[in-house]
Amino acid sequence: MEILLYFVIAIVVFAFTAIVAIAGIGAAFILIPFLFWMGYPFNLAATIGMFSNVLSTGSQSYVHAKNHSINYRIALPMIITSGIFAVIGVLISTSVDEKILLILFSIFLFVAGSFIFFRTVKSNKNENFEKKEIENINILSGNIKEKKEHIDLNEENTFTPSKYIIFGLISGILIGFISGMLGVGGGSLILPVLLFYGMETKKAASTTSFVVLFSSLTSFLSRVIITQIDWGLIIIVGIFTLMGGFTGSKLMHFKLKQKQIKLVIIIILWVVGIKILLGLF
Fold first, then answer.
1. How does pLDDT run across 16-45, given as a tens digit for each residue?
2. Checking phi first, is residue 68 left (phi over 0); if not, alpha (psi -120 to 50) or beta?
């Protein structure tokens, strides 16, 4: 029976890690409720979720670094503050009732899903506008290169060096606290924020996975000290997380339809959030 349980967990871990890796986020937000529904305590599920995040975002970041798609100027300030506040979040979570943590976790899922949804809607409007602008430029000048350079510069001008640091440090506080408190990496919040400020989708996803790697690592190491670990489970999760992370990050650099991927993630976030609340009341 235990072998069958581990087999089911392995399949779920691989599938969801690969899917969310395409968007540059960890799979903890789905693995934690899944493991909880399978009968594991919330604190153990959160610890395993953090471990999965470390491996999946680590493998993703390796691939993204080779493709030079990580924005380190905004990622490094985030990592500094997220590491500190992840520890604070873990310490606070030990004194909070499990039901309250689950309610907060479901709220996090709704907020993260809504962020991505509204950003996707806005992105679609911007893309349609840019297509019209591109057509006009091509008609007037016939200079495709000039048009492309104009579009690329929009992202670079979004942040000044000082704004990179301030935005990174402040965002890291929120990300780290959420990571430690609820056992999630915070990538579902980082990604839509970076997209909102105009960062290109693949670069935003790559930067997100790099930040989540360190916030998850800090949270995991803090939780290991206060949680009794199921080492058989953690080995299974580790192996299939690595496989799913490499698979998803490789697929991201092919011409996949990002809108459909985002839609799948949004639906998962909302459905899981509803399921958690229905199970509590």
1. 888 777 765 667 777 888 888 888 888 888
2. left
